[in-house]
Amino acid sequence: MNLDKFSIRWESSELGHPPSGQTQNSVNRSSTPKNPVWSVLIVGGVLLALIGSLGLIMLFVEQGESSRADLENPTPDLPSVAEIQSTLEHGASGPAAPSFGAAPNQPQSLAFLKDLLVPMPEVLRPDLAPQAEGTGRSGESKAESGEPVGGAIRPAGPWPENPEVTFSHFCSRCHLLPPADVEPRALWPAKIRQMYRYATGPRPQPPEAIPPIEAATQYWTGRAPEQLLLPPDALAWPRSPLIFGKLWIVFPELDPPAAISCIRIHSWNPPDRLVIFISEMLHGSILSWQIKPETLPPRVIGRAHHPSRIEVVDLDQDGFLDLLVADLGDFWPVDTDKGRVLWLRNVGDDRFETVEIFTGLGRVNEVKAADFDADGDLDLIVACFGNLSTGGLIYLENTSENRSSPVSQMGSDLQTNAEIGSPLQFEATLLDDRPGWSDVPISDFDGDGMPDFFALQSQEHERVLLFWNRGWGSFAERLLYQAPHPRWGSTGIIPVDLDGDGDIDLLFNHGDAFQFPPVARPYHGVTWLENAGGIPFRAHRLAHLPAVHTSMPADLDGDGDLDVIVSAFMPAFNPSWPDAEELVSIGWLEQVSSGVFRRWSLERSLPYHPSGDVGDLDGDGDVDIVLGNFSLFRFPQMPVEACLTILENLRESPGTLEKMLQSWVLPADSPW
Question: What is the pTM of this model?
Answer without folding.
Answer: 0.79
